[in-house]
Specification:
467 residues; Rossmann fold; 55% helix; alpha/beta; ten-stranded mixed sheet; 10 strands
């Protein structure tokens, strides 16, 4: 009787284990379906966002398309790829300003560095509240570039590639990590390039931080390799770069960090290096680390505004070289105007083309004159008109030079170039017309702008002839 009871008990236990296994399997399948639905709903929301309907944006796109058509037919500029890249950056900036107006007068500060260096934690340390926090972790977390500004309310928005925006709740925002995004079968950043967060902050109202994805030199997945490209793209948009180093990793600036900084054009940006997690080191060792970072930067001729040993978790600075990190942020709390930076970039590209085309036009004119002189010299030596071979060669050269046709072509290109410049300048002026300008920023009128621009062109052309 006891044996039968024990047997039934054992069978019941096995049935319970089987049932529990079935329940767990179904729970996993249900969780998998839930995650799929969550991702599907997320993508549907992004794709359903209507693009910004802006006449100014349409006008600029027309001017930009005109420039691209011009570049495709023009052959004088040798470094055309560089010019198109710069103008594409201008286009991106204009789109960004018109679709994301909250930041166009802010001083953009990009936070860069390797993963787990404390970029998100640094920005979190400036939040007055903890209702919203940028996700942090030991593994790579930040996958989508995030703009963070100070405001009275808590608000998170996602910006679609088409230019529209949608509000995100905090729980979904916290999931926008590599683990979540790697579950998609495509790169989600192609439809949701960046996110914005507005929260009450301790820093000034004129600062906008960009939390960039951490790069990993040894990354193997495609999404993580693209983090490097994304990081560089958003650092290009910034006026200031704060480069983070995690003192819990190697304790100083790495070779890959140096290579990354060298690969960036930082000539028009301020660089500040923050050695984070300083609470992990004694003060004497921190000072040695800062001096080592200083020497590395100077050895590779990387200019910097300051180096700080800082603790994001304790919101405390332990030591610094050249400038205090906190004082540095205070001095950067100033409104910025992107108008003149954009105009200067447009003028620089136009000037490259103008100089190259003018140089070719001068060459063809001088070549035509030389050819005409050659004909006169030959007539003095002998009557070559009866020599069919010489006559045919001279005719072929004359057609190849085709001085009048080429001079006309170059003149038309120069005229079109100025029209493109004026068209783009007009749209940029309209975009920024509501911006309050200080007296030092004011420009008298468009005629003076044109005179200044043409002066730059002619000086550049004259300088190129002297070389």
């Amino acid at each position: 009787m006891i044996d039968k009871f024990e047997l039934e008990k054992e069978q019941q236990k096995k049935q319970e284990e089987t049932l529990q296994g079935t329940i767990e399997r179904y729970q996993k399948e249900l969780e998998s379906v839930r995650k799929i639905k969550e991702r599907f709903d997320f993508v549907s929301k992004i794709l359903s966002v209507q693009p910004t309907n802006s006449q100014l944006l349409n006008d600029f796109h027309k001017a930009y398309d005109r420039f691209i058509n011009f570049a495709n037919k023009e052959e004088s500029l040798a470094e055309e790829a560089k010019a198109i890249h710069k103008m594409d950056h201008v286009r991106s900036s204009i789109e960004h300003i018109l679709t994301f107006p909250e930041v166009f007068t802010k001083n953009i500060i990009a936070i860069g560095g390797g993963f787990s260096s404390g970029k998100s934690a640094l920005i979190n340390s400036f939040f007055k509240e903890k209702k919203i926090q940028l996700p942090v972790g030991i593994r790579p977390v930040t996958a989508i570039a995030t703009y963070v500004t100070s405001g009275e309310k808590n608000c998170i928005k996602g910006y679609s590639k088409k230019g529209g925006a949608l509000e995100l709740d905090a729980s979904l925002f916290e999931k926008l990590s590599h683990d979540f995004l790697d579950g998609f079968e495509f790169n989600i950043k192609e439809i949701l390039p960046h996110v914005s967060v507005e929260v009450p902050m301790l820093t000034g109202e004129n600062i906008c931080f960009i939390d960039t994805p951490g790069y990993n030199p040894a990354a193997t997945s495609e999404s993580k390799r693209k983090d490097l490209e994304v990081s560089k793209h958003y650092i290009e948009k910034a006026n200031v770069v704060i480069w983070m180093i995690g003192l819990d990793a190697i304790g100083t600036i790495s070779k890959s960090d140096i290579e990354y900084l060298q690969s960036m054009d930082l000539s028009q940006k301020k660089l500040f290096v923050v050695a984070n997690k300083a609470e992990l080191k004694p003060l004497s060792e921190l000072e040695e680390i800062l001096n080592e970072i200083k020497e590395e930067l100077e050895d590779f001729d990387i200019k910097y505004a300051g180096i700080s040993a800082y603790s994001a978790s304790r919101k405390k600075e332990f030591s610094f070289i050249k400038n205090s990190f906190i004082k540095f942020l205070e001095t950067e709390n100033v409104q910025q105007s992107q108008k003149f930076s954009i105009i200067e970039q447009i003028e620089e590209v136009i000037m490259w083309y103008y100089q190259a085309i003018s140089r070719d036009k001068t060459k063809i004119t001088e070549l035509g004159k030389l050819f005409h002189q050659l004909e006169l010299d030959l007539l003095e030596v002998q009557d070559y008109s009866s020599n069919l071979a010489i006559k045919n060669r001279l005719t072929s050269i004359s057609k190849a030079i085709d001085r009048r046709a080429n001079e006309k072509k170059y003149s038309e290109h120069l005229e079109e170039l100025i029209k493109i410049k004026d068209e783009m300048g007009y749209v940029v002026g309209k975009i920024f017309k509501s911006e309050t300008k200080s007296k030092s920023e004011s420009r008298s009128n468009n005629d003076e702008d044109r005179k200044s621009f043409y002066g730059k062109i002619f000086n550049a052309i004259d300088h190129s002839k002297m070389k």
